[in-house]
C-alpha cells in the first residue's frame, strides 16, 4: 500500500511539473492558434537565471528560492513576449512559418546556452526542507513534490481567474472569437495576444525553476526534454484546454510512475501508447473541440 501511495503522490508531483510547462502551450494554442516549439527555451533560460539568482543569494534559503521563482517568471514572460512581438506577430495564420521560426529559435537558444553555461549539467541546492521527506500512510514522499503541486494549483487558478474576471481576459477571449470586430471597437488585440504569450512564458519560467529542483540540476537540454511530454499532455488533454492539460498531466505522469516501477521502466512507452489510443479514439483530445 505504501508503494502505491508513493507512486501516486510522486506522479501527482511530476504531473504538476508537466502542467506548468503544458499550460503555456495550451493557452497560446487555444487562444491564438500558435504551436510554439521554442517554449522549452523559455523554461531553460528561466531555470539558468533562477539558478544564478539563488546562487548569488545563498542557494539553501527560502528567500533565494522565492527570488529564483520570481526571476524565472519574469524571464519567461519577457522572453515569450519578445518572441511574440518580434517573430510570431507577423506569422499569424501561417502555421508552417510559425513551426520553422520557433524550431529555429529553439535550436539557436540551446546552442547559445551551451556557449554561456557549458554543456555539462549545473547541480543545484535548495532549502533543506525540499531535500527531506514526509511520511504519508507509510510512504516517504519527497517534499519538493508538495511544492510542485501547490504551485501548479495556484498557476491554474490564477490563469482561469485572469481570463474570466479581468479586462485583458475579456479582450483576449473576445479577440479569439472575432478579432476584426474587437479591432473595429478600437481595442488593440495585438497587445492582448502579447499578454497571452507573457502568461504562458511566466508559467514555463516557474516550471523551469521548479524542474531544476525536481531533477537536481539545470542544463541546456532541460527545456527540450520536458517540452516533449508537454506536447503529449497538450494533445491528450485537447489543444487549447487548460482543464484538459491539467487532467492529462496527472494521467500521463501517474501512468509513467506506475509503469516504470511495475513494468521495468516502460513508462515512456506507455505514455506513447496512451497518446496513440487517444488520437485513434478521440483525435481532438479529452477536452478539445471537435472540428
UniProtKB/TrEMBL annotation:
Q: Name one GO molecular function term.
A: transmembrane transporter activity
Q: InterPro entries, alphabetically?
A: ABC_transp_permease, BCAA_transport_permease
Q: How does it sit in the membrane?
A: Multi-pass membrane protein
Key word Cell membrane present:
yes
- Transmembrane parts of this sequence: 6-27, 34-51, 63-87, 99-117, 146-172, 192-215, 227-254, 261-281
Q: Which GO terms describe its biological process?
A: amino acid transport
Does the keyword Transmembrane helix belong to this entry? yes
Which GO terms of the cellular component aspect does the record hold?
A: plasma membrane
Q: Which UniProt keywords apply?
A: Amino-acid transport, Cell membrane, Membrane, Transmembrane, Transmembrane helix, Transport
Q: Give its localization.
A: Cell membrane
Q: Which family does it belong to?
A: Belongs to the binding-protein-dependent transport system permease family. LivHM subfamily.
| Annotated protein name in UniProt | Branched-chain amino acid ABC transporter permease
Q: Which organism is it from?
A: Pseudolysinimonas yzui
Q: Which gene encodes it?
A: livH
Amino acid at each position: 500500500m505504501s508503494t502505491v501511495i508513493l507512486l501516486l503522490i510522486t506522479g501527482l508531483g511530476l504531473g504538476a511539473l508537466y502542467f506548468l510547462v503544458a499550460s503555456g502551450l495550451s493557452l497560446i494554442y487555444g487562444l491564438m492558434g500558435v504551436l510554439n516549439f521554442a517554449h522549452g527555451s523559455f523554461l531553460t533560460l528561466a531555470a539558468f537565471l533562477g539558478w544564478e539568482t539563488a546562487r548569488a543569494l545563498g542557494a539553501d534559503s527560502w528567500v533565494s528560492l522565492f527570488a529564483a521563482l520570481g526571476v524565472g517568471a519574469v524571464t519567461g514572460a519577457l522572453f515569450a513576449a519578445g518572441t511574440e512581438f518580434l517573430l510570431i506577430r507577423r506569422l499569424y495564420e501561417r502555421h508552417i512559418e510559425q513551426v520553422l521560426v520557433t524550431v529555429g529559435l529553439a535550436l539557436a537558444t540551446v546552442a547559445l546556452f551551451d556557449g554561456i553555461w557549458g554543456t555539462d549539467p549545473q547541480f543545484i541546492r535548495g532549502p533543506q526542507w525540499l531535500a527531506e521527506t514526509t511520511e504519508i500512510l507509510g510512504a516517504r514522499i519527497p517534499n519538493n513534490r508538495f511544492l510542485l503541486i501547490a504551485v501548479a494549483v495556484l498557476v491554474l487558478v490564477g490563469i482561469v481567474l485572469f481570463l474570466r474576471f479581468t479586462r485583458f481576459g475579456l479582450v483576449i477571449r473576445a479577440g479569439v472569437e472575432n478579432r476584426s470586430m474587437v479591432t473595429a471597437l478600437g481595442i488593440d488585440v495585438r497587445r492582448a495576444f502579447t499578454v497571452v504569450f507573457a502568461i504562458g512564458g511566466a508559467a514555463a519560467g516557474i516550471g523551469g525553476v521548479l524542474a531544476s529542483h525536481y531533477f537536481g540540476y539545470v542544463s541546456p537540454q532541460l527545456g527540450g526534454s520536458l517540452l516533449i511530454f508537454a506536447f503529449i499532455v497538450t494533445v491528450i488533454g485537447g489543444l487549447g484546454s487548460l482543464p484538459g492539460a491539467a487532467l492529462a498531466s496527472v494521467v500521463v505522469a501517474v501512468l509513467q510512475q506506475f509503469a516504470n516501477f511495475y513494468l521495468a521502466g516502460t513508462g515512456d512507452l506507455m505514455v506513447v501508447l496512451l497518446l496513440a489510443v487517444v488520437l485513434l479514439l478521440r483525435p481532438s483530445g479529452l477536452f478539445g473541440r471537435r472540428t
